[in-house]
Amino acid sequence: MSDQLLFNPRTYDPAHFDPETRRLLRATVDWFEERGKRRLIEDYRTRAWLGDFLAFSAKEGLFATFLTPEPAAGQDGPDKRWDTARIAALNEILGFYGLDYWYAWQVTILGLGPVWQSDNAAARERAAELLDAGEVFAFGLSEKTHGADIYNTDMLLEPDGSVEGGFRATGSKYYIGNGNAAGLVSVFGRRTDVEGPDGYVFFAADSRHPAYDVVKNVVDSSKYVSEFRLTDYPVGPEDVLHTGRAAFDAALNTVNVGKFNLCTASIGICEHAMYEAVTHAQGRILYGRPVTAFPHVRRELTDAYVRLVGMKLFSDRAVDYFRSAGPDDRRYLLFNPMTKMKVTTEGEKVIDLMWDVIAAKGFEKDTYFAQAAVEIRGLPKLEGTVHVNLALILKFMRNHLLEPADYAPVPTRLDAADDGFLFRQGPARGLGSVRFHDWRPAYDAYAAVPNVARFRAQADALCTFVETAAPDEQQSRDLDLLLAVGQLFALVVHGQLVLEQARLTGLDEDVLDELFGVLVRDFSAHAVELHGKDSATADQQAWALGAVRRPAVDADRSARVWARVEALAGAYEMKA
User: Fold this and answer.
1) Beta strands in 19-100 (DSSP E)
2) DSSP H stretches of helix in 61-161
3) Is 330 helix (H, G, I), strand (E, B) or coil?
4) Cβ distance 272 to 96 under 8 Å?
5) Residue-wise pLDDT tens for the chain (576 aa)?
6) If we measure between CA atoms, which residue out of 182, 49, 50 comes closest to residue 111?
7) Residue 23: which residues within 8 A CB-CB, separation 6 or more?
8) What are phi and psi of 212, to 5 degrees?
9) Number of Cα atoms under 13 Å in the Cβ half of residue 381
10) For residue 175, what are the CA distances in angstroms to 102, 147, 223, 540?
């Protein structure tokens, strides 16, 4: 039995995409499958640079086709575009085979962000040519001292008196993926002769230039996460991508585009690991019985499965909001940190649940699981920590829960269209003005599903909390308390998009009910956590305990979902 909800290289046929997209996605799967598991693991353990993969990508035109927006494609035809749906599909595939491959692609996306947002036609043309040549890109934002704090940068640009509009750049950047090999590095700095935000500059650098020094790889991995230093690096007018406030906006808007990719990479990792884990558990005999005969093992693997399905449903639906975004519809600004924070932390839970089942097997060097258990930890920590993204999510809570606006329904977006608005996002401010459609109809559509109904009661209770017991001005400075509230809100948003996608895809209601049983438990756990916070008021403590619910239990439903999980045993194994 092939589970149609999970990616399986044996049966994968992305027929919902256009022919060239299907060809490239399938060619990528076939390239990895032909290389085999032994080579995959060996390259991971020996920290081999990804030259073979990048050569494959260059030969097939993979990055060039998927990452060149239509306006920059020129006469190359309709296959080149920035299409979030197919980008998400490739994220999942690359995550499935190894985060190192995904990372080289992901930081190329980040490096391209400031370029595709720029009015510098020469730089855009150069980027398109570099993509055609198979080059990778890098995003030179973070620094060793400041991290990704874009209000402060020690990359300094001195005006170059010999070149009108030119500069000489000196400074270092830290934790920059592909910084060892990028044909173009988008570097964030500031002018020495201009104070304040007007002094910001984004410029293009070349890692092969003599004034560009790669100091080291700061991680022990095939990923080359570089520290590099520029010393009197010449920046001509043709290299300047953005100046002033526009440079600041380009940094944040680039992260808005790139942050989204972490969710589907996490999904791919979990899918590969799940095939291994279920296959091992089913074949392992303990006390005369398969490991999967034990009730706690079935519960853990079932929870892992439905959480993974929830990750996929949420992420697939979020794609539609990204692709349908515009100046008057910026709902993606909530769903973006949600995919980054919620989906990736769900991925950690999925791996942990499976690891509790397979135990020592998860350490063995000939398994994919051993690297999955390490790599899954990185995704919640890239492009902003969980805490940073939770704090961002909280900015939308009142508008989302209590102040719905009218929007036309957003359809499933798998059409072969260019997502051009992502590079015309405009000023990175005004989050308080972002409005959302009513979240309740998504829940109403499944009111007959027992655990959806119980979770809906918890969501309604959260609205009451916001109206009657929300943190006061003093508590609003207690980030520890606020983050507990943020987790509760994130669950409501997560459930909403899961239900919207379930409706669009006809998801089996047994799976949905089992998933929402998990979400009911999660909401209760976060409510108890809020109850225990030092600064929680008596009213907040009483509310928290009152929001605790027990999921609706149905042994027959659980058995039917378990049958789906059990069928994953032997459904896929990468050839040696």
Assistant:
1) none
2) 62-67, 70-73, 84-97, 99-116, 121-132
3) coil
4) yes
5) 457 899 999 999 999 999 999 999 999 999 999 999 999 999 999 999 999 999 999 999 999 999 999 999 987 777 999 999 999 999 999 999 999 999 999 999 999 999 999 999 999 999 999 999 999 999 999 999 988 788 889 999 999 988 888 999 999 999 999 999 999 999 999 999 999 999 999 999 999 999 999 999 999 999 999 999 999 999 999 999 999 999 999 999 999 999 999 999 999 999 999 999 999 999 998 888 889 999 999 999 999 999 999 999 999 999 999 999 999 999 999 999 999 999 999 999 999 999 999 999 999 999 999 999 999 999 998 877 888 899 999 999 999 999 999 999 999 999 999 999 999 999 988 999 999 999 999 999 999 999 999 999 999 999 999 999 999 989 989 999 999 999 999 999 999 999 999 999 999 999 999 999 999 999 999 999 999 999 999 999 999 999 999 999 999 999 999 999 999 999 999 998
6) 182
7) none
8) -105, 115
9) 8
10) 16, 9, 11, 41
- Residue type for position 1: M
Pairing label, strands 156-159, 184-191: parallel
Q: Tokens standing for 451?
A: 């655990």
DSSP character for 422? G
CA distance 314 to 493: 9
Residue in 421, 551, 451 with CA at minimum distance from that of residue 82: 421
Q: In the structure encoding, which two tokens stand for residue 320, read together?
A: 């539609």
Start-end of H helices in 359-428:
369-375, 386-394, 397-402
Among all chains, which residue has been given the structure tokens 């809570």? Answer: 397
The angle at the Cα of 89, spanning 86 to 92, to the nearest 5 degrees, equals: 155
Distance CA 110, CA 105 (A): 9
What is the full DSSP assignment across 481-511? Answer: HHHHHHHHHHHHHHHHHHHHHHHHHT--HHH
Q: Token digits for 463? A: 């609205």
* Backbone torsions φ then ψ of 98, nearest 5 degrees: 155, 135
What is the β-pairing status of strands 137-140 and 184-191?
A: parallel
Copy the structure tokens of residue 8. Answer: 């399986």
* Torsional sign, CA 372, 335, 25, 68: negative
Residues 6+ apart with CB under 8 A from 286: 294
- Nearest to residue 87, comparing CAs of 103, 63, 70? 63
Q: Rounded CA gap, 569 and 576, in Å?
A: 18
Q: What are phi and psi of 114, to 5 degrees?
A: -65, -30
Mapped to the 3 state alphabet, what secondary structure does 193-259 carry? CCCHHHHEEEEEECCCCCCEEEEEECCCCCCCEEEEEEEEEEECHHHEEEECHHHHHHHHHHHHHHH
Q: Centre a 10 Å sphere on the Cβ of residue 163 and count the other Cβ atoms it contains.
A: 13
Terminal-to-terminal C-alpha distance of the chain: 22
